[in-house]
Design goal:
By secondary structure, the chain is mainly beta. It has one domain. It has a 16-stranded antiparallel beta sheet that branches. It is globular. It binds flavin mononucleotide. Flavin mononucleotide (FMN) binds next to strand 29, strand 31 and helix 6.
Length: 531
């Protein structure tokens, strides 16, 4: 571990934990991995286990105006997602409603309200953000503060052009290849403090030396990676989508991950939930110890893992969700070698036995997308963890990526956003986690997930879409465009209004300790919380 002098090592404690499951018919106890309260060192939070990874438990591209898309390579591998429309019949008590008194609403284009008193009020509300180290040569590296996956095969990544230093973007355009290395607790606090971009400033790049990091040269001709990073991704430039309407050069960069390199120290034995599938090893978030950005130079590791399998359909047509609870402990010891997956070499199935993109690009924030169906104004809502901002200047923009069934049938959120010309992002906080899970039920177009989840709804202030009344942060978005990448659709929206619950702000920023947003990890049941 580099620069360990500035990292506070803490022990993991494992305590028995039993929690009632909400409306679940099978109740079993789990163990909660409980971490000691992390040290708050200036504006940097870190928790790392004492024993490293030794634990006792625990395209075809559719291009439409107004974008210009530079296509450097194409992916054409079809994919599929399961969706079986059903008739739900689950009545749940409505969640408590929050008064509107403490709400702040910022209409983009007008001066931000005094309560959001910071350099970039949009970014001050957009937490957490997935982070990675980014290099375009063997010398220099920058911290990419906010990116996400957007397609399984080919494995694809997106972020806004302004998230990286301009010099790196220029080099990326020229070389058309780059390397990304996971941002984890292995790098020193000093490295993060130096490399972090304060919101409103232009991102900077540094030599590996300047950040006290060792570079690992690539054997395959890609730029160097951070040596200590358990996950390394060699990428090629797929497309640049210019948002012509926004005047200040905002664009969305799309990369194809050509090769994933995963260190053996990030792998653990398959868990019970993976039984019956031919899975060789689990890519383990607890071993990777990723760091997320909370904005303005503040980074935090995961404080705990949570488990919540997708809601199950019952024989009577209703749906049942488990509670949002502690992840079952990992069993067995880890003794794995490094793993390499290149979809062009190995095909869509990674040697570990599954498509690992969600286990490698994480923790992801969840875009909880609400819309009206045009015909009948049925309120729809569903979670999309392929969600990220793609412009963070005067005109913020966000994107969610929806899988199309058989590469063709769109999910409701996409259809509605395109039909109605708008959608809303709602933040998922811990108290809304179970409702969020219900909203992922595959329901018919004429059914409302709001009703199934017992969610109080309101109409958005500017756009014609419903919002989750109790969500701490909401972005009202005008639909701009859809870009198809293989069997996924990237639905892009201009943020026109931001609604924030004043009680989750500290010094003009959304405070993760108050808002308690949850993050999505790799597997069907896995989530992370920040402490
Ligand atoms: C936490 C979570 C994150 C999800 N993220 C995505 C995603 O990024 N893209 C996607 O296509 N489906 C995702 N899903 C599945 C969709 O939510 C699910 O298919 C839902 O039924 C779609 O609803 P809709 O058709 O009403 O939009 C996710 C599910 C969960 C529980």
């Amino acid at each position: 571990m580099n620069g360990s002098d500035s990292i506070h090592h803490r022990l993991f404690f494992v305590v028995p934990f039993v929690r009632f499951q909400i409306l679940s018919r099978s109740s079993h106890s789990h163990k909660l991995t409980c971490l000691e309260e992390p040290s708050r060192n200036a504006d940097f939070l870190f928790v790392s286990p004492e024993n490293g990874h030794q634990r006792t438990s625990t395209t075809t591209t559719t291009i439409q105006n107004p974008f210009t898309i530079h296509n450097y390579s194409t992916g054409t591998v079809p994919g599929a997602c399961s969706s079986t429309p059903v008739v739900p019949s689950l009545a749940r008590p409505h969640m408590s409603s929050m008064s509107n008194a403490g709400r702040i609403f910022w209409k983009i284009g007008s001066p931000p309200p005094a309560e959001l008193s910071c350099k970039n009020p949009f970014l001050a509300t957009l937490i957490p953000r997935t982070a990675a180290w980014f290099s375009v040569d063997d010398e220099r590296v920058a911290l990419l503060d906010g990116y996400n996956a957007c397609c399984y095969t080919p494995p694809t990544i997106i972020f806004g052009i302004k998230t990286l230093p301009p010099a790196m973007i220029a080099k990326l355009m020229e070389a058309k290849v780059c390397t990304m290395s996971s941002a984890t607790v292995r790098e020193s606090q000093a490295a993060y403090q130096k490399a972090a971009c304060l919101e409103g400033d232009i991102p900077q790049d540094f030599t590996f030396d300047e950040l006290g990091m060792k570079a690992r040269k690539s054997k395959q001709g890609y730029p160097a990676a951070v040596d200590a990073a358990p996950i390394k991704m060699h990428c090629s430039l797929n497309q640049i989508v210019n948002f012509d309407g926004t005047s200040d050069g905002e664009s969305m960069i799309i990369l194809t991950v050509e090769t994933f390199l995963v260190d053996g120290s990030a792998l653990s034995p398959p868990t019970e939930i993976m039984a019956g599938r031919d899975i060789k090893a689990k890519i383990d978030a607890e071993l990777i110890q990723p760091v997320v950005s909370l904005g303005n130079g503040i980074f935090a590791p995961l404080a705990g893992l949570r488990s919540m399998p997708r809601p199950q359909k019952q024989n009577d047509g209703g749906w049942v969700s488990n509670a949002f609870e502690g992840n079952p402990p990992t069993v067995g010891t880890s003794n794995y070698g490094a793993m390499e997956w290149s979809y062009k070499v190995h095909g869509p199935q990674c040697p570990l036995g599954f498509n690992p993109i969600t286990a490698l690009i994480m923790p992801r924030s969840i875009g909880w997308i609400s819309t009206y169906k045009k015909d009948g104004r049925i309120p729809h809502i569903a979670p999309y963890s392929f969600f990220v901002d793609v412009a963070r200047g005067k005109q913020p923009m966000v994107v969610f990526s929806g899988a199309r069934k058989n590469g063709e049938i769109k999910k409701d959120a996409q259809t509605d956003a395109e039909d109605m010309g708008c959608f809303v992002y709602n933040m998922v906080s811990e108290d809304l986690a179970v409702a969020m899970n219900y909203s992922a039920a595959e329901m018919g177009r004429n059914e409302s997930e709001f009703e199934l989840a017992g969610l109080a709804q309101e109409k958005a202030t500017i756009v014609d879409a419903p919002v989750v009344k109790d969500a701490h942060v909401k972005y009202e978005c005008e639909y701009i465009q859809t870009v198809d990448i293989a069997s996924f659709s990237l639905v892009i929206g201009k943020v026109v209004g931001i609604s924030v619950d004043a009680s989750v702000l500290t010094n003009g920023r959304v405070d993760h300790m108050k808002a308690r947003p949850i993050t999505r990890l790799g597997y069907m049941n896995e989530y992370g919380i920040l402490k």
